[in-house]
Amino acid sequence: MATNLTDCDALIPEINGRLQTIHAFYSKSCLPIAEELLSVGDTSIYALASRCCVVKLGEDYFQDQADELKSFRDLDTTAEYQDAISETGDSSAE
Fold first, then answer.
1. Residue 84, Cβ density class (10 Å: 0-12 exposed, 13-18 middle, ≥19 buried)
2. N or C, which end of the chain has less CB nearby within 10 Å?
3. What residue ranges do the domains of the chain occupy?
4. Contact 84/67 with Cβ under 8 angstroms?
5. What's the number of CA atoms in the CB half-sphere (13 Å) around residue 77?
6. How many angstroms separate the CA atoms of 66 and 39, rounded?
7. What is the CATH topology of the domain spanning 2-89?
8. Is 89 left (phi over 0), alpha (psi -120 to 50) or beta?
9. Alpha-carbon distance 91 to 32, whole Å?
10. DSSP of the chain, one letter per residue?
């Protein structure tokens, strides 16, 4: 994925219509924009993305991944986390 970071400031996966900013690659060219946003108290990663040249990588880009896009799943509750752990069969993570 990082090899595609040539003609843009950031590569951000877009899964189910939502930008996956934590799974993104950002170039150093984003740093001045991030510093400017932080200087005015704006800590939103979406604000940064909106001010950068972004290439969105759709679900088709990740089609060959063995995890069927599960790495992009939100785990906001303990129950969601436990479900994810049980799906992997990894009892050491419990």
1. middle
2. C
3. 2-89
4. no
5. 3
6. 41
7. Spore Coat Polysaccharide Biosynthesis Protein SpsA; Chain A (3.90.550)
8. left
9. 43
10. -GGGTTSSSEEEEEETTEE-GGG-EE-GGGHHHHHHHHHTT---HHHHHHHS-EEEE-GGGGTT-TTTTGGG----SHHHHHHHHHHHT-GGG-
- What amino acid occupies position 74? D
- Distance of CA 23 to CAs 39, 40, 56, 85, Å? 24, 25, 11, 20
Per-residue pLDDT tens for 6-50?
778 999 999 889 899 988 999 999 999 999 999 999 999 999 999
In this model, does residue 3 exceed pLDDT 80?
Answer: no
